[in-house]
Amino acid sequence: MHAVAVFVLLGAGMYAVCVLDHLVGNRVAGQSVRVCAAFAQPWQSAALELRTQRVTTERPDSALWALAPALLGAAAATAVATVPLGALGSGAAERWDVNAGIVLFGAAMALVMVAVYLNGWAANSAFSLIGAYRFVAQALSYEMPLALVLIAAALPAESLSVGAIVQSQASVWNIVRQPLGLPIYLIAGLGLAFWGPLATPDAQDLAGGTEVELSGPALLLWRAARAGVLVAVAAMGAAAFLGGPLGPWQLGLVWMAAKTLLLVLIMLWLGHRLARVRLEWFVRVAWTVLIPLALVDVFASGALVLWSR
Amino acid sequence: MIGALARLASGGPARVFPLVGAHPPGRVELLRLGNEVTEDVTLVDSPRAATVLLVAGHIPASLQEPARRVHDQLPHPRSTVWWVGASGSESGRESARTPFGAGTDTFPLVLVESGTQADELDALRTLGRTLRKMVQDLVSGVRPSEPDLLPDVDPTPWRGVGPYGQGGAGMTGGVPYGRPMTERAADRDGLELDQLPLRVGPYFPPFPAGLVLDLKLQGDLVQESQLGAAPHTPPARIFATALAEPVPIATLELARARSHLAWLAHALHVHGLAALGRRALQLSSRLGGVSSDARFLPAILASAQGEILTLQRAIECSGLFWWSTRGVGVLTESGLRAHPDALDAGGTHALGLGPVARAAGLRDDCRVDEPAYRALGFEPVVQAAGARSQVGDASARWRQRISEVYQSLDLAARAGDAHAWGNGIVEGVRGTMTAGADPQAALFALIPDAITGRAWEDAVTTVVSLDLGVGGAVQDVHPWAAREQLRARTRRDAAAGDHEMSGMSGMAGM
């Protein structure tokens, strides 16, 4: 039951990412926003990909190449599964809650690096391989701040369960008591989903990087899984910083979906408004600015917990 | 089920990989504007993601083999559309039945010819419709997918003992079975690391068509670079005309502004700002439509300047000058002067490298010697080092071109029907052009020094910032000529009104 809910919501989230990305892109371009086309286009593109041949390269590592999108999708699904989807207190949410959800989320998201590297490496193609190298350098830089701000979010709950983290925000959301948390989390999240300014592994300067050799169903799966990672990042952000399903009128799932979509929208908008970073610059900033700020976030949050006892 | 899938698939945007040949009949990149201008068409960055290969213009013989290779990289179902200028415009070429060279006319080709439309977008609308129709026919099975043009075999047979061809005979010379073995060389930290030989081009999307670089990479670091072949992008026709005869300044400066905007659109796309790039492209194409509204030219140009200001703010907010281009690809004054290919005309415009030299702080512009420009009070825009910016880097070149768009629109609005040039020298989009020298060649020669030792991302940023050409050249617009025509037509109409009867009787007499 929970698995079905996770897959339905992940699928809906991927669709929402495609629709919103189209709308936000047209808005930023100053072109008219055609809502009908935005809703139809993901289905049309998917149908076209399904009818397109999957090409292989000379001597690819076929098994790993096929595994990469599945691994990315599975990582996204696992990450979404750690997030409480419905209203807490209904019983079901507690039963589904993993008691170390934050750790499981981190473990699933660490696999994103493996999936992207495999996808780039297995194609046996130069640009694809350079994209894979890039992502490893990037991943080492965003993972630390990501983990630190999530630890800070767990401190007030004194638990690693995402359900408990949500409950701990009943009086005040984490975005208020940890103002540094969400911005750092969203930057790291863009890196994790290799989106917008941090879309370095599949950048235009590599003609598509890790996805340069993908075609047909393989390309469809890869892009869908990547959208899934963005949804997972937004869902965890909504739970850890915006109170997840908490809100008036006991509309748990609705609040959760609305907050997730809001974060998705913010990340898509940033994706269209921010230029892709130089990797060297990002690595330097991540280690000299983001990680220290994330540490400040952890210490301040810990001090706040002790002080409020 | 399959039918429903096909119907659904045929409704979406056509995914097109463009191959720009020599003398394309129009600007392929305008297809990015999508449904507002043409049919729904998406230009993709990899042939693997495309359904249709769009060949714009004629592929030079030396590039036909790579073009065939790109063709075969498209997944099935696939098709080619060949977009050429009006027949007869390029003599002797119409006889060719395929863009890919002899022996490749094994499938029926769809040819789109465009004449000399007044509006460049008219041609694109026809093209967009054809591209959409092609995808619909392909997915519904009406049109068969195109077969390969090259045999689908390994470049050299794998005959080795091990699974990767290793072992056995044939390993001599470091080229087992035609595949170069990894060589090792010292990297910038002195470590002995593997080198990856890589040929980039001639159809690498961020670079202009025809540009080939032979590189040796370590990781993503360019250790060695050699020029393979120069790009084949022609400048706008008006600049070539200006070498031989005086041309209206308004026309010339509009062409410059639109060329810079077309570059801006491409460069924004390469830096991951495709949506802002579409905005620049819209502006570039809208400025091409001014000929019909000549009376309102100053007002139109003022409003365009306003839009460019908005776009410039968006670019500044995007962090592009901060984390993508700052300090990348620095070409200093002394470095440019030391270059053997720099045009040495003496005097104040010694280099003739246009925006690239001016971005390095040089007052390098032969418009200062042109009396008609002096009469307009022309003074070249030159980048100066600031607290947060340096001269000569990629970011300075971006700023330089954006400032020049303003300046060109301002000159075009004030120039009236003043004419200039015609004495064998002209300040083109990329620098000083003379009958014998094109700045493009000198800029091309700057590449190896500028990218060696840099990360690949910086190498691409540098090459893009040099502006070696983007797709097709902008079409000439003649706003003041159009105004003259309009006046003449009004006079003619008035005269015709006065003498309507006599005119008709005159015609009846013929």
Structure explained in plain terms:
- The complex is a heterodimer of chains A (309) and B (510).
- By secondary structure, chain A is mainly alpha-helical.
- Helices cover 70% and strands 0% of the residues of chain A.
- In chain A, α1 (2-28) packs across α3 (62-81), α2 (35-50) crosses α10 (217-241) and α6 (126-154) packs parallel to α12.
- The longest helix of chain A has 29 residues, at 126-154.
- Chain A is globular and about 65 Å long.
- The mean pLDDT of chain A is 88.
- The model of chain B is unreliable at 88-94, 345-349 and 497-510 (pLDDT under 50).
- In chain B, strands 2-1-3-4-5 form a five-stranded parallel beta sheet, with helices on one face. Chain B has a four-stranded antiparallel beta sheet with strand order 6-7-8-9.
- Chain B has 510 residues and is α/β, with parallel strands linked by helices.
- In chain B, β12 and β13 form a beta hairpin.
- Helix content of chain B is 39%, strand content 13%.
Name the poorly predicted regions of chain A. Answer: none
CA-based gyration radius of chain B: 25 Å
| Alpha-beta content class of chain B | alpha/beta
Give the strand order, joined by hyphens, for the main sheet of chain B. Answer: 2-1-3-4-5
**Order of helical and strand elements of chain B:** HEEEHEEHEEEEHEHHHHHHHHEEEHHHH
Number of strands of chain A: 0
Taking all Cα atoms into account, the compactness measure Rg of chain A is: 19 Å
Q: Please report the distance between the alpha carbons of the first and last residues of chain B.
A: 67 Å
Q: Main sheet of chain B?
A: 5 strands, parallel
Class by alpha and beta content of chain A: mainly alpha
Number of helices of chain A: 12
Could you tell me the mean pLDDT of chain B? 79
Specify the number of helices of chain B: 16
The proportion of strand residues of chain A reads under 5%
Pair with the biggest interface = A-B, 59 and 61 residues
Shape of chain B: globular
